[in-house]
Fold each of these.
Amino acid sequence: MSNTAVQEAQTTEAAGGFEIFRTETAPILDEAGHMEYRDVTPEIEAGIMAASEAGANEGNIVKTLFSKPGFSLTYAWFKSGFPLPLHTHNVDCLYYVVAGSLQLGTEELRAGDGFFVEADKAYRYTPGPEGVEVLEFRGEENFDIKFLAKSASMWGKIAGRAAERRGDWANETPPSQKMS
């Protein structure tokens, strides 16, 4: 699906310069084509494949809610204990925790909290016991991701964690659904 078709599918223009977007019709981030994988070595590619085979793709849902040149809004639900690899993006990003919790370094963030990451700053966080839902605001429509976990050993740990959590992930619901 082209970027134009994706944007048309996810938003509805209303009178007066308003646009409405809906989460249920928003495209998965990879389908939207706004994030480019950078500096993928054979080791990283093999690690991504191993993590996918271990079930990592079942531990997250990431959707492009809205995008226009100069702006993007992404929704991400990472299930409990999802092993988010250390990575960077080439644009600044502002995160808002919608529901659940996450551990960022020594800080625990819960619904209503947030954090800012400058472009090219390495980071990762760990979703809490109920998982975490976040909104990601960026001042660019397109951005990259560079994974910094480069060794087979690091990717083995990521794949192992995904394999451990996979069974539990099958029964998890977004933490925002538990709040209602």
Note: Residues 1-10 have pLDDT under 50 and may be disordered.
Amino acid sequence: MSYQFLQLHQAGPIWTLKLHRPEVYNALNAGLIHEIREVAEAAEISDAVRVLVITGEGKAFCSGADLKAGLIDPDLGNVLRKTYNPMILALRGLNKPVIGAINGVAAGAGCSLALACDYLIAKEDAYFSELFVQIGLAMDAGSTGFLMQSLGYHKAFELASTGKKLSAAEAKAAGIVAEVVSGEAWEARVAELAAEFAARPTFVIGLMKKSLQKAQGMDLADVLEMEAQAQSAAGRSEDFAEGVMSFLQKRSPKFKGK
């Protein structure tokens, strides 16, 4: 697979998607959005990939929509339906863990892209900002839901209505970011983290993703039934059999993601 606006590095079970428009701080145009979706869909059907890492080239993770690229439709709702929404759904629906390696600014739709990832690790000088209000737009690409899920109404409203910057440390304190890493340790820790996730039972992680995303707003009885259905699938997996066997044999498990 070859791409114009991103680089895809495949190292065994680890796929690393690097946004590659550093001249515009990895701003999202229609082509890049399509390519991100394409990678996510390819990862979905590949038995080889166990974890997807998303990061940016240069100083930024993603500065948001490329406003200089022009609009493919004057109705911005149609633009979202054709481009951003399918990309976000492909990432959130991916049945494997997605690590957001936030190497710099994540603003506007770039913040949405970061929040669409399952596990965020941020470089210490990175920051997040929902810049939509500064150009007179509502939030999109999932940020409305992601902020509510992570922060609750009042903090979500604060960030949405002010466009203020949230530092990597503040994002960690708020519960959005799992790890903050220095620039010197960045590449090594991202690689180590990806390897850690690739070694986990990614089949059941995919089940967990699906259940967690559905659980909010469901009543307890429905959550319990959803968990039972997921556990039925997990109990038939090769990884469960390996997990039990490794426990009985007192050794480290060797999961396959199946």
Note: The chain has a mean pLDDT of 90.
